[in-house]
Protein backbone atom coordinates (compact mmCIF):
# COMPACT_ATOMS: atom_id res chain seq x y z
CA UNK A 1 0.00 0.00 0.00
CA UNK A 2 1.18 3.45 -0.77
CA UNK A 3 0.01 6.13 1.57
CA UNK A 4 2.29 8.87 0.49
CA UNK A 5 0.54 9.90 -2.68
CA UNK A 6 3.32 9.22 -5.16
CA UNK A 7 1.03 6.88 -7.08
CA UNK A 8 -0.92 9.86 -8.27
CA UNK A 9 2.14 11.17 -10.11
CA UNK A 10 2.29 9.54 -13.52
CA UNK A 11 5.55 8.52 -15.12
CA UNK A 12 6.41 7.50 -18.65
CA UNK A 13 4.33 4.80 -20.30
CA UNK A 14 6.01 1.40 -20.35
CA UNK A 15 6.62 1.64 -24.10
CA UNK A 16 8.40 4.97 -23.58
CA UNK A 17 11.04 3.56 -21.25
CA UNK A 18 14.59 4.02 -22.47
CA UNK A 19 16.72 0.88 -22.45
CA UNK A 20 19.09 0.49 -19.49
CA UNK A 21 21.96 0.59 -21.94
CA UNK A 22 21.25 4.28 -22.61
CA UNK A 23 24.37 6.02 -21.41
CA UNK A 24 23.96 9.58 -22.62
CA UNK A 25 21.60 12.11 -24.13
CA UNK A 26 22.29 14.95 -26.54
CA UNK A 27 20.04 17.91 -27.28
CA UNK A 28 19.24 20.24 -30.10
CA UNK A 29 17.11 23.35 -29.91
CA UNK A 30 14.39 24.57 -32.24
CA UNK A 31 14.15 28.32 -32.09
CA UNK A 32 12.48 31.24 -33.83
CA UNK A 33 10.08 34.04 -33.01
CA UNK A 34 6.47 33.75 -31.90
CA UNK A 35 4.26 31.30 -33.72
CA UNK A 36 6.75 30.15 -36.37
CA UNK A 37 6.00 26.47 -35.75
CA UNK A 38 8.47 25.37 -33.04
CA UNK A 39 5.94 23.36 -31.04
CA UNK A 40 4.55 21.78 -34.19
CA UNK A 41 8.00 20.66 -35.28
CA UNK A 42 8.83 19.12 -31.92
CA UNK A 43 5.56 17.21 -32.01
CA UNK A 44 5.95 15.97 -35.54
CA UNK A 45 9.37 14.33 -35.02
CA UNK A 46 9.14 13.19 -31.41
CA UNK A 47 8.71 9.50 -30.64
CA UNK A 48 7.03 10.33 -27.35
CA UNK A 49 4.03 12.53 -26.82
CA UNK A 50 5.64 15.97 -26.46
CA UNK A 51 6.16 17.04 -22.87
CA UNK A 52 6.53 20.41 -21.21
CA UNK A 53 9.05 21.58 -18.66
CA UNK A 54 8.21 24.77 -16.87
CA UNK A 55 10.06 27.38 -14.98
CA UNK A 56 8.44 29.86 -12.65
CA UNK A 57 9.85 33.15 -11.62
CA UNK A 58 8.80 36.33 -10.03
CA UNK A 59 9.08 39.52 -11.93
CA UNK A 60 9.67 42.51 -9.74
CA UNK A 61 8.49 45.75 -11.27
CA UNK A 62 11.08 48.47 -11.07
CA UNK A 63 10.04 51.68 -9.40
CA UNK A 64 6.52 50.39 -8.95
CA UNK A 65 5.74 50.48 -5.30
CA UNK A 66 2.50 49.31 -3.84
CA UNK A 67 0.77 50.85 -0.85
CA UNK A 68 3.06 49.08 1.55
CA UNK A 69 6.23 50.29 -0.04
CA UNK A 70 7.32 46.89 -1.34
CA UNK A 71 7.82 46.11 -4.97
CA UNK A 72 4.97 44.57 -6.90
CA UNK A 73 5.71 41.02 -7.89
CA UNK A 74 3.98 38.78 -10.35
CA UNK A 75 4.73 35.13 -10.84
CA UNK A 76 5.26 34.15 -14.44
CA UNK A 77 5.41 30.63 -15.73
CA UNK A 78 7.35 29.95 -18.86
CA UNK A 79 6.90 26.63 -20.62
CA UNK A 80 9.18 24.84 -23.04
CA UNK A 81 8.04 21.83 -25.03
CA UNK A 82 10.33 18.98 -25.89
CA UNK A 83 10.36 15.62 -27.56
CA UNK A 84 12.68 12.69 -27.86
CA UNK A 85 14.15 10.38 -30.50
CA UNK A 86 16.03 7.19 -29.69
CA UNK A 87 19.20 7.01 -31.74
CA UNK A 88 20.98 3.85 -30.63
CA UNK A 89 20.88 1.53 -27.65
CA UNK A 90 23.27 4.00 -26.00
CA UNK A 91 22.25 7.42 -27.24
CA UNK A 92 19.01 9.40 -27.13
CA UNK A 93 18.35 12.80 -28.72
CA UNK A 94 16.12 15.47 -27.17
CA UNK A 95 14.58 18.34 -29.10
CA UNK A 96 13.61 21.49 -27.26
CA UNK A 97 11.23 24.05 -28.72
CA UNK A 98 12.14 27.26 -26.94
CA UNK A 99 9.50 29.64 -25.65
CA UNK A 100 8.83 32.50 -28.06
CA UNK A 101 10.27 35.13 -25.77
CA UNK A 102 14.05 34.96 -25.87
CA UNK A 103 14.45 36.84 -22.65
CA UNK A 104 13.29 33.75 -20.78
CA UNK A 105 15.88 31.39 -22.15
CA UNK A 106 18.34 31.96 -19.35
CA UNK A 107 15.86 30.09 -17.14
CA UNK A 108 17.07 26.75 -18.43
CA UNK A 109 20.66 26.42 -17.50
CA UNK A 110 22.83 25.13 -20.32
CA UNK A 111 20.01 24.99 -22.85
CA UNK A 112 22.19 26.55 -25.54
CA UNK A 113 25.65 25.96 -24.18
CA UNK A 114 25.44 22.22 -24.47
CA UNK A 115 23.21 21.89 -27.53
CA UNK A 116 24.77 20.17 -30.52
CA UNK A 117 23.14 22.76 -32.75
CA UNK A 118 19.97 24.67 -33.49
CA UNK A 119 17.24 24.91 -36.10
CA UNK A 120 16.06 28.49 -36.68
CA UNK A 121 12.51 28.49 -38.00
CA UNK A 122 11.50 31.37 -40.21
CA UNK A 123 8.00 32.37 -41.32
CA UNK A 124 8.27 34.36 -44.56
CA UNK A 125 5.33 36.54 -43.51
CA UNK A 126 7.32 37.73 -40.50
CA UNK A 127 10.97 37.03 -41.10
CA UNK A 128 12.06 39.67 -38.64
CA UNK A 129 10.69 37.78 -35.62
CA UNK A 130 13.56 35.33 -35.99
CA UNK A 131 16.36 37.92 -36.32
CA UNK A 132 17.00 38.30 -32.62
CA UNK A 133 17.59 34.63 -32.01
CA UNK A 134 20.09 34.33 -34.85
CA UNK A 135 22.18 37.03 -33.25
CA UNK A 136 22.07 35.18 -29.97
CA UNK A 137 23.17 31.92 -31.53
CA UNK A 138 26.01 33.64 -33.37
CA UNK A 139 27.18 35.29 -30.18
CA UNK A 140 26.97 32.01 -28.30
CA UNK A 141 28.80 30.08 -31.03
CA UNK A 142 25.89 27.66 -31.49
CA UNK A 143 25.90 26.26 -35.05
CA UNK A 144 22.52 26.48 -36.76
CA UNK A 145 20.61 25.90 -39.98
CA UNK A 146 17.61 27.90 -41.16
CA UNK A 147 14.33 26.19 -41.99
CA UNK A 148 11.71 28.22 -43.81
CA UNK A 149 8.33 27.02 -42.63
CA UNK A 150 6.15 27.49 -45.67
CA UNK A 151 2.76 28.78 -44.71
CA UNK A 152 0.40 28.75 -47.71
CA UNK A 153 -0.26 32.48 -47.56
CA UNK A 154 3.36 33.39 -46.98
CA UNK A 155 5.47 35.04 -49.69
CA UNK A 156 7.98 32.77 -51.43
CA UNK A 157 11.47 34.16 -51.79
CA UNK A 158 14.37 32.65 -53.67
CA UNK A 159 16.81 31.14 -51.19
CA UNK A 160 19.56 33.54 -52.21
CA UNK A 161 17.30 36.53 -51.47
CA UNK A 162 16.64 35.05 -48.05
CA UNK A 163 20.32 34.47 -47.48
CA UNK A 164 21.05 38.08 -48.32
CA UNK A 165 18.21 39.31 -46.11
CA UNK A 166 19.33 37.14 -43.21
CA UNK A 167 22.94 38.16 -43.85
CA UNK A 168 24.15 34.57 -43.63
CA UNK A 169 27.35 33.14 -45.12
CA UNK A 170 26.99 30.66 -47.99
CA UNK A 171 27.88 27.60 -45.91
CA UNK A 172 24.86 27.89 -43.59
CA UNK A 173 22.07 25.74 -45.05
CA UNK A 174 18.68 27.33 -45.69
CA UNK A 175 15.94 24.82 -46.47
CA UNK A 176 12.19 24.91 -46.92
CA UNK A 177 9.97 22.71 -44.82
CA UNK A 178 6.46 22.03 -43.63
CA UNK A 179 6.87 21.42 -39.91
CA UNK A 180 3.51 19.64 -39.72
CA UNK A 181 4.99 16.75 -41.69
CA UNK A 182 7.30 14.35 -39.92
CA UNK A 183 9.38 13.57 -43.01
CA UNK A 184 9.88 17.25 -43.72
CA UNK A 185 10.90 18.02 -40.13
CA UNK A 186 13.16 14.99 -40.11
CA UNK A 187 14.88 16.28 -43.27
CA UNK A 188 15.57 19.57 -41.50
CA UNK A 189 17.25 17.70 -38.64
CA UNK A 190 19.26 15.70 -41.18
CA UNK A 191 20.37 18.96 -42.76
CA UNK A 192 21.54 20.18 -39.36
CA UNK A 193 23.44 16.95 -38.70
CA UNK A 194 25.13 17.04 -42.11
CA UNK A 195 26.10 20.66 -41.48
CA UNK A 196 27.56 19.78 -38.06
CA UNK A 197 29.37 16.88 -39.67
CA UNK A 198 30.89 19.19 -42.29
CA UNK A 199 32.00 21.54 -39.51
CA UNK A 200 33.65 18.63 -37.75
CA UNK A 201 35.47 17.66 -40.95
CA UNK A 202 36.69 21.16 -41.72
CA UNK A 203 37.81 21.77 -38.16
CA UNK A 204 39.70 18.50 -38.02
CA UNK A 205 41.70 19.64 -41.05
CA UNK A 206 42.81 22.92 -39.55
CA UNK B 1 9.53 41.78 -53.54
CA UNK B 2 12.41 41.53 -51.12
CA UNK B 3 12.33 40.27 -47.57
CA UNK B 4 13.20 42.63 -44.70
CA UNK B 5 16.91 42.95 -44.05
CA UNK B 6 18.49 41.71 -40.85
CA UNK B 7 20.98 44.07 -39.29
CA UNK B 8 23.63 42.37 -37.29
CA UNK B 9 24.09 43.77 -33.90
CA UNK B 10 27.24 45.72 -33.25
CA UNK B 11 30.17 43.45 -32.52
CA UNK B 12 29.24 41.56 -29.39
CA UNK B 13 29.99 43.60 -26.29
CA UNK B 14 32.92 42.42 -24.22
CA UNK B 15 31.82 39.83 -21.67
CA UNK B 16 30.06 41.65 -18.85
CA UNK B 17 32.08 42.03 -15.69
CA UNK B 18 31.05 39.54 -13.04
CA UNK B 19 28.10 40.92 -11.19
CA UNK B 20 29.10 41.84 -7.67
CA UNK B 21 26.10 40.10 -6.13
CA UNK B 22 26.61 36.69 -7.73
CA UNK B 23 30.05 35.22 -8.26
CA UNK B 24 30.45 34.15 -11.84
CA UNK B 25 31.58 30.69 -10.89
CA UNK B 26 28.41 30.02 -8.93
CA UNK B 27 27.01 26.71 -10.14
CA UNK B 28 23.42 27.70 -9.45
CA UNK B 29 21.37 27.15 -12.56
CA UNK B 30 19.87 30.45 -13.33
CA UNK B 31 20.27 33.43 -11.12
CA UNK B 32 23.88 33.92 -12.02
CA UNK B 33 23.11 34.31 -15.71
CA UNK B 34 20.42 36.89 -15.38
CA UNK B 35 22.76 39.79 -15.77
CA UNK B 36 24.01 38.74 -19.17
CA UNK B 37 20.63 38.48 -20.84
CA UNK B 38 19.19 41.12 -23.09
CA UNK B 39 21.27 43.90 -21.64
CA UNK B 40 19.37 47.11 -21.43
CA UNK B 41 16.19 45.64 -22.86
CA UNK B 42 14.77 44.00 -19.78
CA UNK B 43 14.21 46.47 -17.05
CA UNK B 44 12.44 43.95 -14.85
CA UNK B 45 14.46 41.81 -12.56
CA UNK B 46 13.64 38.15 -12.80
CA UNK B 47 13.89 35.72 -9.98
CA UNK B 48 13.48 32.01 -10.12
CA UNK B 49 11.32 30.49 -7.44
CA UNK B 50 12.97 27.51 -5.86
CA UNK B 51 12.24 25.53 -2.77
CA UNK B 52 15.63 25.91 -1.20
CA UNK B 53 18.87 27.76 -1.55
CA UNK B 54 22.31 26.32 -1.56
CA UNK B 55 24.52 24.09 -3.62
CA UNK B 56 22.99 22.45 -6.66
CA UNK B 57 24.27 19.48 -8.52
CA UNK B 58 25.30 20.47 -12.07
CA UNK B 59 22.43 18.68 -13.78
CA UNK B 60 21.46 19.55 -17.31
CA UNK B 61 18.01 19.26 -18.89
CA UNK B 62 19.21 16.05 -20.53
CA UNK B 63 21.26 14.55 -17.74
CA UNK B 64 19.87 11.02 -17.43
CA UNK B 65 18.82 9.93 -13.95
CA UNK B 66 18.74 6.28 -12.93
CA UNK B 67 17.48 4.81 -9.66
CA UNK B 68 20.08 3.01 -7.59
CA UNK B 69 18.33 2.34 -4.28
CA UNK B 70 14.95 1.46 -2.78
CA UNK B 71 12.89 4.34 -1.50
CA UNK B 72 13.79 4.86 2.17
CA UNK B 73 10.88 5.05 4.57
CA UNK B 74 11.65 8.74 4.98
CA UNK B 75 11.20 9.42 1.24
CA UNK B 76 8.89 12.26 0.23
CA UNK B 77 6.19 11.59 -2.39
CA UNK B 78 8.32 13.39 -4.98
CA UNK B 79 11.37 11.29 -4.14
CA UNK B 80 9.30 8.12 -4.29
CA UNK B 81 7.92 9.15 -7.66
CA UNK B 82 11.41 9.90 -9.01
CA UNK B 83 12.69 6.54 -7.79
CA UNK B 84 9.80 4.79 -9.51
CA UNK B 85 10.01 6.60 -12.84
CA UNK B 86 13.81 6.41 -13.02
CA UNK B 87 13.85 2.61 -12.85
CA UNK B 88 14.70 3.13 -16.54
CA UNK B 89 16.95 6.10 -17.42
CA UNK B 90 15.00 9.35 -17.66
CA UNK B 91 16.09 12.91 -18.42
CA UNK B 92 15.76 15.70 -15.89
CA UNK B 93 13.46 17.48 -18.35
CA UNK B 94 11.12 14.48 -18.36
CA UNK B 95 11.18 14.26 -14.57
CA UNK B 96 10.24 17.95 -14.45
CA UNK B 97 7.40 17.34 -16.92
CA UNK B 98 5.94 14.32 -15.13
CA UNK B 99 6.26 15.83 -11.66
CA UNK B 100 4.92 19.14 -12.98
CA UNK B 101 7.65 20.89 -11.09
CA UNK B 102 9.89 23.65 -12.42
CA UNK B 103 13.29 22.53 -13.67
CA UNK B 104 15.08 24.47 -10.93
CA UNK B 105 13.00 22.79 -8.22
CA UNK B 106 13.75 19.38 -9.72
CA UNK B 107 17.43 20.30 -9.67
CA UNK B 108 17.21 20.88 -5.93
CA UNK B 109 15.32 17.63 -5.42
CA UNK B 110 17.89 15.68 -7.43
CA UNK B 111 20.82 17.33 -5.66
CA UNK B 112 19.57 15.81 -2.42
CA UNK B 113 18.86 12.44 -4.00
CA UNK B 114 22.29 12.29 -5.63
CA UNK B 115 23.95 13.17 -2.33
CA UNK B 116 21.96 10.42 -0.62
CA UNK B 117 23.00 8.00 -3.39
CA UNK B 118 19.39 7.18 -4.15
CA UNK B 119 19.94 7.96 -7.84
CA UNK B 120 22.79 8.11 -10.29
CA UNK B 121 23.36 10.72 -13.01
CA UNK B 122 24.61 10.05 -16.54
CA UNK B 123 26.20 13.18 -17.95
CA UNK B 124 24.90 14.56 -21.25
CA UNK B 125 26.74 14.77 -24.54
CA UNK B 126 27.59 18.42 -24.95
CA UNK B 127 28.76 20.39 -27.94
CA UNK B 128 32.51 20.38 -28.36
CA UNK B 129 34.86 22.55 -30.32
CA UNK B 130 35.47 19.57 -32.56
CA UNK B 131 32.14 17.77 -32.95
CA UNK B 132 32.21 14.02 -32.55
CA UNK B 133 31.73 12.71 -36.06
CA UNK B 134 30.78 9.17 -35.10
CA UNK B 135 28.05 10.54 -32.85
CA UNK B 136 26.70 12.70 -35.69
CA UNK B 137 26.76 9.72 -38.02
CA UNK B 138 24.83 7.67 -35.47
CA UNK B 139 22.26 10.46 -35.16
CA UNK B 140 21.86 10.58 -38.94
CA UNK B 141 21.26 6.83 -39.05
CA UNK B 142 18.77 7.15 -36.22
CA UNK B 143 16.90 9.93 -38.00
CA UNK B 144 16.76 7.95 -41.23
CA UNK B 145 14.84 5.23 -39.42
CA UNK B 146 12.26 7.72 -38.16
N1 LIG C 1 -0.22 26.17 -42.73
C1 LIG C 1 0.71 25.88 -41.86
N2 LIG C 1 0.45 26.12 -40.56
C2 LIG C 1 1.40 25.84 -39.64
C3 LIG C 1 2.66 25.32 -40.04
N3 LIG C 1 3.41 25.18 -38.94
C4 LIG C 1 2.68 25.60 -37.90
N4 LIG C 1 1.45 25.98 -38.31
C5 LIG C 1 0.41 26.51 -37.45
O1 LIG C 1 0.89 27.74 -36.92
C6 LIG C 1 0.49 27.90 -35.58
C7 LIG C 1 1.69 28.16 -34.68
O2 LIG C 1 2.49 27.00 -34.62
P1 LIG C 1 3.28 26.59 -33.28
O3 LIG C 1 3.97 25.30 -33.58
O4 LIG C 1 2.42 26.64 -32.09
O5 LIG C 1 4.33 27.77 -33.20
P2 LIG C 1 5.37 28.08 -32.03
O6 LIG C 1 6.60 28.56 -32.72
O7 LIG C 1 5.53 26.94 -31.10
O8 LIG C 1 4.65 29.28 -31.32
P3 LIG C 1 5.01 29.96 -29.90
O9 LIG C 1 5.42 28.85 -28.96
O10 LIG C 1 3.76 30.65 -29.49
O11 LIG C 1 6.12 30.94 -30.18
C8 LIG C 1 -0.27 26.64 -35.19
O12 LIG C 1 -1.66 26.91 -35.31
C9 LIG C 1 0.18 25.64 -36.26
O13 LIG C 1 -0.81 24.67 -36.51
C10 LIG C 1 2.87 25.07 -41.44
O14 LIG C 1 3.92 24.60 -41.85
N5 LIG C 1 1.87 25.37 -42.29
MG1 LIG D 1 5.30 26.88 -28.99
UniProtKB/TrEMBL annotation, chain A:
Molecular function per GO: ATP binding; GTP binding; hydrolase activity
Identification of the protein by name: ATP-binding protein
CDD domains per the UniProt record, alphabetical: Ras_like_GTPase
Family: Belongs to the GPN-loop GTPase family.
Tagged with keyword Hydrolase: yes
Annotated keywords: ATP-binding, GTP-binding, Hydrolase, Nucleotide-binding
Xref: InterPro entries: Gliding_Motility_GTPase (IPR052705), Gpn (IPR004130), P-loop_NTPase (IPR027417)
Keyword flag GTP-binding: yes
Alphabetical list of SUPFAM superfamilies matching this protein: P-loop containing nucleoside triphosphate hydrolases
Coiled-coil segments: none
Classification via Pfam families: ATP_bind_1
Automatic annotation (TrEMBL), chain B:
One Pfam family cited in the UniProt record for this chain: DUF742
Disordered: region residues: 1-46
InterPro entries per record: DUF742
Top-level division of the source organism's lineage: Bacteria
Low complexity composition-biased segments: 22-32
Pro residues bias spans: 11-21
Biased composition (Basic residues): 1-10
Coiled-coil intervals: none
Name of this protein: DUF742 domain-containing protein
Organism from which the protein derives: Streptomyces humidus
Highest classification ranks of the organism: Bacteria, Bacillati, Actinomycetota, Actinomycetes, Kitasatosporales
Amino acid sequence: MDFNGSDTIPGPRAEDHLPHTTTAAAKIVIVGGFGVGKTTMVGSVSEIRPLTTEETMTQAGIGVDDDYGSETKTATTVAMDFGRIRITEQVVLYLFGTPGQERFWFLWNGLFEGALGAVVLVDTRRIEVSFEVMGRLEEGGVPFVVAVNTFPDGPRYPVEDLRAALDLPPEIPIVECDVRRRASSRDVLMTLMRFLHSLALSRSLT
Amino acid sequence: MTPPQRRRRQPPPPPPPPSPAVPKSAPSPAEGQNGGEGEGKNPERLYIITGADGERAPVDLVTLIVTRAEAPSSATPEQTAVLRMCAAPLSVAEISAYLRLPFSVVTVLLTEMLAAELVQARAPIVRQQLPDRSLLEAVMHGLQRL
